[in-house]
Amino acid sequence: MWSLIKPLLFKIDAEDIHLNVIQNIRRFGPFFLKNSKSDIKKKKAFGMTFRNPIGLAAGFDKNAEILKFLPQFGFGFAEIGTVTPRPQEGNSRPRLFRIPKEKTIFNRMGFNGDGAFVVSERIKSQKSDLPEDFRVGINIGKNKVTPNEEAAIDYQKAIIPFEGIVDYVVINVSSPNTPGLRDLQTVAALEPIIDSVQSVIQKWKTVPPLLLKLAPEAEIETLISHENSWGITGWVLTNTLAGTFLYGKDHLPGGLSGQILQEKSRTVLKNVKKQSEKSVISVGGIMNREEAQTRLDLGADLIQIYSGWIYQGPFFPRDLVKSL
Ligand SMILES: Cc1cc2nc3c(=O)[nH]c(=O)nc-3n(C[C@H](O)[C@H](O)[C@H](O)COP(=O)(O)O)c2cc1C
């Protein structure tokens, strides 16, 4: 069925389809979709139980518009965001492209979103519709206009509204689409950001696990040596590969995901597991059952998909869960 529909959908602008899919899931989800027992393959990670180890990666449901329907596609958890403290529009369109021959996606979205407060309210209103073992993570970033020297304040503001409504927190310093953001992937720049987020969440009644999401190009080895002193729970590896996309005469800068990222992301996981004692969510180029199983066999606690969902169809997560 998906192989028939996909060529038609792929003729339409990628962001238009994305917005349309979100709208239609909201409209028709309540009538068509059901939670299934086959979606349950419980997995322990970060001291809690996940419905299954397959999650939706950050960036798909940035604003938590379809959160309550995600378990019905087979997901065991979802990472909402990236959210910034204040709402912002992101880069101008077009900013999302498919490269079907290579099962790759190019994006230069730039943290478009409704802002932390609105998204936190939206998650709150859907919590009671979610299965008890379905986990929700929040991925936080800074606003484009905030200079890097003030980034720690933005990350702190972004996390404050989420007390009591998320199961884990991810500090994202690895989007290529916010100018200078990746420069925050150094020990000196990360320390104040982690401190300011920790100072908030350590006071919560239930302290959530804190993870860092890094780019495939980051100097991860150096950062790992600080994992204990920072008190983090683990790593989300990886974000997109920095690259360009030829649009007319312009080479647009942005991030590449999907097949192109597969080997790189797998290698990062292998290397990190050799050095780190912490948990890892592996993401990047998981496009089939074999790759999903490989990541888990290599020691990933959980895995996430984004491009795989686009290229393999709506029930890809369910298919992955069954195959585990
Ligand atoms: C359109 C798009 C938007 C994304 N937005 C975010 C984001 O806001 N925050 C983030 O941490 N990652 C974001 N990502 C990166 C994904 O979460 C994931 O790390 C990356 O796509 C690699 O996984 P994949 O190969 O399965 O797509 C985005 C990816 C895409 C394709």
Please explain how this structure is put together.
By secondary structure, this protein is α/β, with parallel strands linked by helices. It has one domain: Aldolase class I (TIM Barrel). It has eleven helices and 14 strands. It has an eight-stranded parallel barrel, surrounded by five helices. The protein has a four-stranded antiparallel β-sheet with strand order 5-6-12-11, with no helix packed on it. Strands 1-2 form a two-stranded antiparallel sheet. A hairpin with a 4-residue loop joins strand 5 and strand 6. Helix 4 runs parallel beside helix 5. It is globular. The relative contact order is 0.15. The structure holds flavin mononucleotide (FMN). Flavin mononucleotide (FMN) binds next to strand 4, strand 6, strand 12 and helix 10.
